[in-house]
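Exercise 7. Given the encoded structure of a 173-residue chain, write a plausible sequence.
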């Protein structure tokens, strides 16, 4: 959690989630630009390698726009028709989730060792593309609430606006 605490301290504040004028937004945009400069062809390389190594898998979608998203994403359709989104956070984390309807909350996430093919993709293609610096987010980590950003709790009007580590790492949650 020390790395997450550093990310919170360095890049986020209450206004980031609840107002449009957070001074921290520019810091994240700069980090995203630096990330893209360091890995300009990452998503293309991942797609080519997945297609070469796993021809039965279909790449359905992918994104290059990491400034607002805080991540690169790609969506793969597995032979059993499951659709899985992989996200590489600018903060050095990997997240994956099932994009099929009916899955929500933390139940939609796929964690390390949950899926043999996804594990193999991560270990042989995705993580090496980033110099093996990515950490696959655990369920305990991703679902941890960042209480200092819970608008309702701070105002004392309930607990209906939780912000989780997942919200920090990507725009998608």
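Solution.
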């Amino acid at each position: 959690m020390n790395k997450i605490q550093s990310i919170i301290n360095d890049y986020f504040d209450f206004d980031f989630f609840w107002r449009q004028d957070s001074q921290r937004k520019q810091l994240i945009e700069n980090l995203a630009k630096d990330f893209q400069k360091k890995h300009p062809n990452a998503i293309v390389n991942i797609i080519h390698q997945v297609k070469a190594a796993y021809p039965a898998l279909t790449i359905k979608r992918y994104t290059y726009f990491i400034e607002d998203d805080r991540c690169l994403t790609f969506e793969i359709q597995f032979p059993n028709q499951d659709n899985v989104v992989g996200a590489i956070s600018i903060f050095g984390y990997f997240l994956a989730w099932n994009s099929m309807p009916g899955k929500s909350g933390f139940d939609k996430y796929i964690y390390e060792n949950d899926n043999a093919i996804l594990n193999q993709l991560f270990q042989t293609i995705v993580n090496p593309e980033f110099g093996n610096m990515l950490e696959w987010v655990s369920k305990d980590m991703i679902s941890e609430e960042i209480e200092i950003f819970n608008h309702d709790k701070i105002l004392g009007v309930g607990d209906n606006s939780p912000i989780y580590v997942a919200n920090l790492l990507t725009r998608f949650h």
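Remark. The radius of gyration is 17 Å. Students should compare their own answers with the one above.
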